[in-house]
Each structure stands twice: as C-alpha cells, then as structure tokens.
TrEMBL record:
This is Alpha/beta hydrolase. The keyword Cell inner membrane does not apply. InterPro entries: AB_hydrolase_3, AB_hydrolase_fold, GDXG_lipolytic_enzyme, Lipase_GDXG_HIS_AS. GO terms for molecular function: hydrolase activity. Keywords: Hydrolase. Residues 124-349 form the Alpha/beta hydrolase fold-3 domain. Belongs to the 'GDXG' lipolytic enzyme family.
Length: 372
C-alpha cells in the first residue's frame, strides 16, 4: 500500500542532480511535489500537520524536565512510525537468539521464498535507530523486507541491547557479534560470505560504522559494504578538527523557518555544560565518547573500510555529519556514494509507504548490493 503515486518514484530515480559540498559530490534527490528551495516535502509536511506520529502525546508536555528514567518510557513509545509492507512476493521470516556477545540478542531474517535454493545470496545485517535508548526491529521490518525482495537477499534485523539499562559497549558488541555470527554461519544461511553488508539508520548507522571499523581492525568478519542512513558519527559534545556545524548550512524559507529549525537539533554541537541525554545514556565517560567505535569520524584512519553508501535528509541536523563522513571516507580511498534527499527530515525511512523517498532509498541500497 502506498500513499503516493508511483510517478514520484520515477522522478526520484530519474531527476537527480549532482551538487558539491566541501569537495564531496552529493547525489541530490528531488522532492517529487515541491520544486521551491527551502521547503519541506509536502507529504512530509502533511504528516506533521496531521499529528500522525506513533506514540503521540496528544499535545501534552511532561511537567518540568523530569529525569531520563521517568521520560524513558514516553520517549520509547513516541519513536517510530506506522508504515506499510510494500512487498510483492512472499517473504519468509525466521527468528533466533544468539548469546555469543554475553547478552541474549534477537536476530530476525527475511528472504524471498523463491530464492531459498540459492546458496550464494547477498546479505544485509541491519541495526535500527532510536538514539541508542529506543527504537525497534518492528519499525524497520518492512524496510528490511523490501530490500530483501529488491536485492534478492537475506536481510537480518538485530534486536540489540538498549541503554541506559545496557550502556556502551553492550549495543556495539551485540551488533558486532551478530554480524560475526552471520559470517561464521554463511553456508547455513545460504549467503555468500564475500557479500555481507551492514547498515543502519541514525544510532543504527553509528553502529554500522563502528562495526565496520572494528571488523577492519580485527580482520574479521569480512564486510563488503556499509550502508549509513543519517548516521551519528560524532557525539554531540565531541569536537573534531575540520568539522563545523552551522544553521547557515541549511536553506529554509521564511514561511517554514520555525518548523524546519525544530528538526536541526540532532547533530548540533552541545555546549560544554550541556548534555545530550540520549548519547549520555549510552556513553557517560568523556574518554569513551572519543573512541572511534563511539565516534567513528575520530578514527585515526579510514583506510581499508568497505564500500559505502550514505544517505542524509536535507532538514536533518545529522546531515552535516553524514556528508563530512563521506569526505573522510573518500579521502581515505573508500568507494563512497552519498545521497541527500531534498525536503526530508530525520527518520524518513520509518515512513515507508507514506513518503516515496523511503522506497527510493530501498531501491538504491538494493542496486548497490547487486553490484558486489
């Protein structure tokens, strides 16, 4: 089920342009129904105006800044978006649990039934977003299933540990060992061990980048490609030479100025005395925030990392990090493709079936996988 005409997909696929940002060539995806610069995609805007978010609080604000432990259930319930299954073929779903990381981690996998006799399928191990403290495998399930169909692949969806109950390095270890488990059991899963990709959105993108670094450093598991969707690669209060964040990097109309500015909070560098409650729940020690497995942009070298696809939203504060990381990877000789989706905001893949851009990104990821 789609809430848009398929001509929107055609426009996203055929009417791209190339822009340059800080020496990086960015593939700019159009807003299918909005050509004016500085405006949100109309479908994105309508979803906001309808107040249609999952877990919506009905306009009620919690009383004066309660501690995170009080806010946590509210925040978790408010994450995600009710999306749609766009598959046109039968997708098999399997579930298992792994414990090699010391935690019990749920591992879902999806694959087209028609391809189950193929013993050398592509694979993608995906980590959902949610600021390290929330999110759900269920929010990204339809996204993962569509990639499984489009790429004729096995897609794994990792139900990793969340902070603050399980802080760093729990989530990282859960995801790293999930990938290692898939790699070590490639034959049993019917996948090609030379064509295993990792991916994630937001905090999940952070995990995907960190897992790729750790795998490179340890020499295993072998990762063929990383897919980083509006990833956090620099903790909000961590400074990095050469990295700059400014509202001036974003073009927005006077009419939508106040609306758009609300979406630029993520990625905005915090003042020294301020804290990012999500990041601080995951990593409380300053020295850990400087570790490249927490802030992948701080790695001494990005040499030897796998082929990379990055995707950012025009009106997402993390877009600056996304495109800066693309620059770091390109300078290290990593084959890198970077997309920017005009008019979109953070977490747009959660709206699969509502906005054409989420489906388009599935197509781009599948196409990139098929080149491996």
């Amino acid at each position: 089920m789609r809430k848009y005409d398929t001509r929107a997909i055609e426009k996203l696929q055929k009417e791209t342009s190339i822009i340059e940002n800080n020496g990086v060539k960015i593939i700019l995806k159009p807003s299918p129904c909005e050509d004016r610069p500085g405006y949100l995609d109309p479908m994105e805007l309508s979803l906001m105006e309808e107040n249609h978010w999952a877990g919506n609080l009905g306009g009620e604000e919690p009383a004066a800044s309660p501690p995170l432990e009080i806010l946590l259930p509210i925040i978790r319930d408010a994450m995600g978006f009710p999306n749609y299954n766009l598959n046109t073929v039968e997708i098999h779903t399997k579930y298992e649990e792994i414990t090699s990381c010391g935690n019990t981690v749920g591992l879902w996998r999806y694959y087209p039934r028609k391809s189950q006799q193929n013993t050398k399928r592509l694979a993608l191990v995906f980590f959902h977003g949610g600021g390290w403290i929330g999110g759900s495998v269920y929010t990204v399930e339809n996204f993962c299933k569509l990639i499984a169909e489009l790429a004729d692949a096995v897609v794994f969806n990792v139900d990793y540990s969340l902070a603050p109950e399980k802080p760093y390095p729990n989530g990282l270890n859960d995801n790293f060992y999930a990938v290692k488990h898939v790699y070590d059991h490639a034959e049993a899963y019917g996948i090609d061990p030379e064509k295993i990709c990792v991916g994630g959105d937001s905090a999940g993108g952070n995990f995907a980048a960190a897992v790729s670094l750790k795998a490179r450093d340890e020499g295993t598991p072998k990762i063929a490609m990383q897919v980083l969707i509006y990833p956090c690669v620099i903790m909000s209060d961590t400074h990095l030479d050469g990295y700059e964040w400014s509202e001036n990097f974003f073009e927005f109309s006077k009419e939508q100025n106040d609306i758009i500015k609300n979406f630029l909070t993520l990625g905005r560098p915090a003042k020294d005395e301020e804290e990012n409650p999500f990041a601080s729940a995951y990593v409380s020690k300053k020295e850990d925030k400087l570790h490249p497995y927490v802030s992948p942009a701080l790695a001494e070298s990005h040499d030897g990392l796998p082929k990379t696809v990055l995707a950012g939203a025009e009106y997402d504060g993390l877009r600056v990090q996304t495109e800066f990381y693309a620059k770091q990877l390109i300078e290290a000789g990593v084959e890198t493709t970077c997309f920017r989706y005009k008019g979109m905001t953070h977490a747009f893949i959660d709206k699969l079936g509502h906005v054409a851009q989420a489906e388009d990104l599935c197509i781009e990821i599948a196409n990139a996988m098929k080149t491996l």
